[in-house]
Queue: 2 jobs
Job 1
Amino acid sequence: MSIRYAKSEEFLARAQRTIPLGAQTFSKSRTQFPFGVSPYFISRGKGSRVWDIDGHEYIDFINGLCSVTLGYSDPDVNAAVAAQLEDGTIFSLSHPLETEVAELLCEVIPSAEMVRFGKNGSDATAGAVRIARAFTGRDHVLVCGYHGWQDWYIGSTARNKGVPQASRELTHGFPYGDLPPLEKLLTHFKDQVAAVIMEPMNVVEPAPGYLERVRELTHAAGALLVFDETITGFRYALGGAQEAFKVTPDITTLGKGIANGFPLSAVCGRRDVMQEMEEVFFSFTMGGETLSLAAAKATIGKLRREPVIATMKQRGSRILAEVSKLVEKHGIGHFASISGHPTWSFLIFKDVNGTTAFEIKTLWMQEMMERGLLSFGTHNLSYAHTEADVDALVAAYEAIFPVLRQAVDNRAIRQYLKCEPLEPLFRVR
């Protein structure tokens, strides 16, 4: 048992008696955090910081899997939620907040003419696919990126256990930034594709004209283009990646940052497509839950009022530039690189000289968490991150990168690890 993480490990053993993996989310479980060198339970968060149940403080660069955009326990969001709590959370009829937040989304999201709410990003992507199928009368879907846990998508990944073969055969992946594979799929499934759904950007920026060409090919094939902006929405720009790259899809799915971590997602898009939801069944008891809607109203208001995204971009641009310099300085470019958007960037490792990327990542995480920084390979920025937080991140990399190089160059990474290395969950980006 780890002394540093004794309480976390004891509580994990307790949790695993009643919860598979001991966590409700794969990305928060021992599949992503190496046992023996990781915390597993956070007790509280404030601003850019979180505290685990052993009492250790961390600068958090995961931020609730990108859902926390303003910072933990944002005072404006908390005040709005507390005020709504006095009036109630769920009712026997719709609440005005449903319309008010839908109107806000129609104002800020370029593709939005009508809106329906869910609770998770998976709700929104499943709803988008269902209405696309209804609108086109077709069944096949082409995917690029990660789009949630439901059968229609996860059946196309290595995590397809329990998904019927019939569902798996209707979804087909294509690589980001490469048009010929998409063209080939559209040709192979001619007049059968309902939708092309993709993250408009994740690890690399789209080449000039790429997203425009995807839209042209999709429409020429009689399909609808869906942008999954669960992460990029309210992060790349107020109106998401579609505003940043000036390419408007037919349907957009939103989640995570829409309410600064409160459970809310949305499907929005063209009026004629969205009107399918008058008959297509997409209905939740908690779809109009008011605390999350109050949080969304306050979050969007703050995003409009204050330089939230500009500040995140400024901090993140510095991370991209300085970490890139450190990779070169310490001579680790043969197995490490950094890329992505300033507000959501990725530190990427690859196999080298008999050492796997996951061994390198495990050692990196071990060293990061010992130094009080929480990350599993991404830099998910929030408005609460300060220049001092970036200083701490850069200082940690200055110390850790030489350790990684020594371990790799000497082919001795297991000697540096205080735990077993991570195993891949599944690759989607």
Note: The chain is about 40% helix and 15% strand.
Job 2
Amino acid sequence: MSAKIRLSRHGKTHSAFYHIVVADGRAPRDGRFIEKLGTYNPVANPAEIVLDFDKALDWIQKGAQPTDTVRTILSLKGVMYKHHLLKGVKKEAFSETEAESKFQKWIAEKEAKIAAKRSGVDEKNRADQKAKLDAEVKVNEDRAAEISKKKTAEIDAKVKAAQEAAAKRAAEEEAANPKAEVIETPIEEVKKEAKEEAKTEAKEEVKKEATDETKEEPKAETEKKVKAETKEEPKAE
């Protein structure tokens, strides 16, 4: 029986999740398998790989053949490199202690690269989130200014009409009673209060619009982010 290490697909549409399994080379891709070695989640960023290192190495040493995608995954986790070092020990190219030292050095460098990549991803996510929030604030401010301008124009028109009406009444009262004291309405003060009220109303209206949009907004479709832990990313079969 020729054993093959392959991916077995699970999960939902556009959200694939894989099991890393050892199966008979003649078995269907998602059919029965001999042993499960781990899981691979390409949707996460970076991709998440959980692997039983010792079992995977044991099967590789027994001659199990990984698919191209699984070979990339095993290389990322160091299984193929450890297999190469052990072959060097058998050929007496170097000692087992030297092989382990080389492997631990490789692991340390690999973990440093992964940490740097994860840090970069987190930083980019924070920057994108801040840019999004800044854009939303700018849109809300522009919308509030637009509404305030519109309401201010309406207030100016009403104030002008009120001034004309007041002037007309004053003229009529003066004509009817020339000696009566004319009391002037503080129009400028009224306009100032009205404009402040318009700004407040504009902000409240923008806030209400944003709330309504949030209630009606459909859930965004989850994007598939197939990314691996390094520049060379395993492709799903």
Note: Confidence is low (pLDDT under 50) at residues 219-233.
